[in-house]
Specification:
Shape of chain B: globular
Distance between the termini of chain A: 62 Å
Helix content of chain A: 55-70%
Low-confidence stretches of chain B: none
CATH topology of the largest domain in chain B: ABC transporter involved in vitamin B12 uptake, BtuC
Helix content of chain B: over 70%
CATH architecture of the largest domain in chain B: Orthogonal Bundle
Strand content of chain A: under 5%
Order of helices and strands of chain B: HHHHHHHHHEHHHHHEHHHH
CATH class of the largest domain in chain B: Mainly Alpha
Low-confidence stretches of chain A: none
Largest sheet of chain B: 2 strands, antiparallel
Oligomer: heterodimer
Strand content of chain B: under 5%
Radius of gyration of chain A: 19 Å
Number of strands of chain A: 2
Number of helices of chain B: 18
Number of domains of chain A: 1
Order of helices and strands of chain A: HHHHEEHHHHHHH
Number of domains of chain B: 2
Structural class of chain A: mainly alpha
Shape of chain A: globular
Structural class of chain B: mainly alpha
Largest interface: A-B, 49 and 50 residues
Radius of gyration of chain B: 23 Å
Mean pLDDT of chain B: 81
Mean pLDDT of chain A: 83
Number of strands of chain B: 2
Amino acid sequence: MDPFLTSRIMTDLLGGLTNGVVYGLVALSLVLVWRSTGILNFAQGAMPMVATYLGMGLLSYNLSYWPCVAVAIVAGFTIGGITERVLVRGLYGKPEINPIVVMVGFLIVLEAVAAAVWSTKPRGLPSPFSAIDWQIGGKPFGLSDFSVFEILTAIGVMAVIAALFRFTKLGLQLRASAIAPEVSRLLGVRVGRMLTLGWMLSTAVGTITTILVASNYFTGLTPQVMDGVFAFGFIAAAVGGLDSPVGSIVAGVSIGIILQFVGDYLNSNDIILTALLILVVSLMVRPNGLFTRSSARRV
Amino acid sequence: MVVNSSQRRMSITAMAVVLSAIASFSFGSSTRVAVALSAFLTLLATGAAIFTTPGLRSSHPVVVRAALTITTVDVVLFATYFFPANTNTNLATGAAMSIVLLGLSFLTGASGQISLGNGAFMGVGAFAMAIWANHHATSPIVVGLLVAIVSGALVGLLLGLPATRLRGPYLAGMTLAFAVAFAAILSSFNSWTGGDSGLQLPTAATPPHWLLGFFDSGTSLLTTNSMWLADIAIVVTGVAFFFMANLFASRTGRAMRLIRDNDVAAELVGVSLPRGRVVAFVVSSAYAALGGALSTLIDNAVSPSTYSFALSITILSLIVIGGIGTIPGALIGGIVYAYSNSVITWITNQTGLNPQGNLASQLNGIIFGGLLIVTMLFAPLGISGTARHLWRTRRRRTPR
């Protein structure tokens, strides 16, 4: 066997890819909300966390794994929709700090309520696939059944979202109401519904991500499970450009790989420092993200 | 002879000062107490006279602000003498926090930006103070505070430079990343910051000997110490508020409000956007660092776990509740902070919750987060802004 396949570099590359698709998914869910409503959703980690607790909590009522996942995703859709209707509706057109503050408040409330109801004790999620690394010639190869499942799920979600936006009438309406709400309304698009749908989609994507994160990492499911992942996902979205779904995914994967190497070859402390450095430098070079076409701002 | 109102006021003030001096010397138990008492009353009378003089407010606003600051600080200092130790500690904590809040209030109120990382900037100041004190044990407190301000401003400058080009939520996200990364930053400078256990100050801030003479011989050291710390915190807070009130009203402050309201118009009239944004950010982080340095002084130690992301969120909640972009809002937020723990304990006791239970331990987050949402949705100006708004509409309605 080729020794390169089991080398340190290859292992890091594959591990980074597995982490990176998760960051890419978080970034994608941020971009979905940003593009449709112009709000950076700081509760993007907490809303899916609640949905995951609601869905995966059914495991203790002897429901099997996949129905629980389905329930969690439905809960994600619901929470996203309700949040948009109740909390966010009144914030459009307000100063830009208002939605930030409200969503930060929502993040605190959700995490506190989740900790009050389900306690802060980590809850292990059963993994549907083995998380033990494959062996090649007696040496570990950087992939396991689960990480392949993770990568495939991420690609699948991205493909579904892309197909939805590109090939369906609904996707066209979603794009139209994000770009030109007034014109869309005149042409008969229910813009309000499209905005709600954007939030629902984003929270559902977030729920899938949360399930992956909570069953993959040793941490299990906790109210704060998405905090760190959210930070990296935000950095990916900011580096790639909050307007660009492709950019956010590419940035997420690249950041995942870079950070994996940093954590392996340097120090685990340096991971978040490197991420901060990447964010600061990329914002200085391209303030609107690497993949965004620079746009004129209307006065 | 024509006596105008300001001359009449001056003579009344002079009379009040003389009377208060006589009263102090006849009632004071010793010369020292008498001197202190008459100094208190003199400052009070002078400040009140200046503050109430009509016309002075528009002709010499700085003098009026100084008088208001001195009078308030004077009254609170006097009150600390009678407060029990825990009230003084609360007062000091609240004062330190109100400085941090003032910085954030300025950043948002003057430039329309928001920082989710002011807890980390507070930590920069707190650690700068502790590290300085550990290397220069004999240096006076003021030097330590200045070191903290400078280091806070430098870190703010470093992070603020990219902020010059950022619009929208990018700055909030970047400061969030800084707040999340702060623990890692601290632990990568392990040898300086003392790792997970943090740092102790080499010597606690103790009151000087002349102050001890005011107390009865039976007064415990705890009482005098907490009073001394509260006094330091209050004086520093007074200075900080005085500077900020002037900055808000200055040309720079006006330019920044223009940036907040309409950045294109600001650029057209020659206000430099990048400069304004960086200045606002640097001022806000310097203020946060000053507040952090005071907290180190009050706690006599600094621990990295204090300056977590949760603190940044608490800071944001406090200023939003108090009134973002206003000066009194920072004071209200500081008071809320000083008593928030007592209030939450009180609620826990009243409702009969198990104090070790899940709900009781999360009550803080639920209440603060809920208040944050409710305030922003229904009264985005906070307590102080809403009160000011109500006051103005009432004055407009009542016929004169």
